[in-house]
């Protein structure tokens, strides 16, 4: 549904076709995860051979969610329920990996005592969250956006199936998940879309916070490595914040500067005072809990690495699109 959410440029069809061409064992299935019977049918076809479930399907934009709350909630919450139930019926011992979001914390991070620097907002070095925000931050009493609420419902479902049915489940509360295959669009996938606009000359709008809002970014390869690490050593009802952490984060202004340096051209951007509802001023994930439980895993890519890969993998396609 990604093309329906964000338009044809955001379609993942190109990646699906590449996987089909390169991996003989890859079998794409055209299926809406809201189709309970269809999901169960696919799981039953696999049966006891099911080794793991990696659930990354979602409506991923909090701006889009407000335009169609029913679709957003039914995809994010009910779709997750369908996948959990199918897993429980067919192979409850299979690790269930779910990509949640840091938006489950709502706008609570916005009340942190941030300092304003030249290109970014930053938390004081002596603050307990300097190395990142942990999962102990409350998800209550805050403005989440409707997207944050639908993902929080799914997040809690994943935890509950772990505890109630003793299933190996994990909710990874992600920061910005990105990489060279990201089909970025204005409403989702800011590093990819930012580089695309820099390459093509398409105008870009920065929303609020003077462009100094900070996000941590994790390369898709580092993310998948975390999935694999959990599948090899699963736990019951695990929850982790997972993003780029202290090693891989940037502000909007810093990201624009890096895109311009890598692409060798200026970005045509404007500024809007109106920030997005529930948007974070500063987010860096505390990775220590996952690193402690899975010590063989570590981040390998920096923000600059990610942006260079996005540029090199897409520059020819975007320049002629």
Report Rg: 19 Å
Unreliable stretches covering 5 or more consecutive residues:
none
Overall average pLDDT: 94
- Beta content comes to 5-15%
The total count of helices amounts to 11
Termini distance?
21 Å
The arrangement of helices and strands along the chain is: HHHEHHEEEHEEHEEHEEHEHH
Shape: globular
Q: Tell me the number of strands.
A: 11
Class computed from helices, strands and strand pairing: alpha/beta
Largest sheet: 4 strands, parallel
What is the helix fraction of residues, given as a range?
40-55%
Widest sheet, order of strands: 1-2-5-9
What does this structure look like?
- The mean pLDDT is 94.
- The two termini are 21 Å apart.
- A hairpin with a 4-residue loop joins strand 3 and strand 4.
- By secondary structure, this protein is of the alpha/beta class.
- The chain has a 4-stranded parallel β-sheet with strand order 1-2-5-9, with helices on both faces. Strands 6-8-10 form a 3-stranded mixed β-sheet. A two-stranded antiparallel ribbon has the order 3-4.
- The protein is globular, with a radius of gyration of 19 Å.
- It has helices at 2-6, 13-22, 36-46, 62-65, 69-90, 146-165, 190-200, 220-232, 252-263, 288-293, 303-320; strands at 53-55, 96-101, 115-116, 121-122, 169-174, 176-178, 204-207, 214-219, 238-242, 249-251, 269-272.
- Helix 3 (36-46) packs parallel to helix 5 (69-90) and helix 7 (190-200) crosses helix 9 (252-263).
- The chain contains 11 helices and 11 strands.
- Helices cover 41% and strands 14% of the residues.
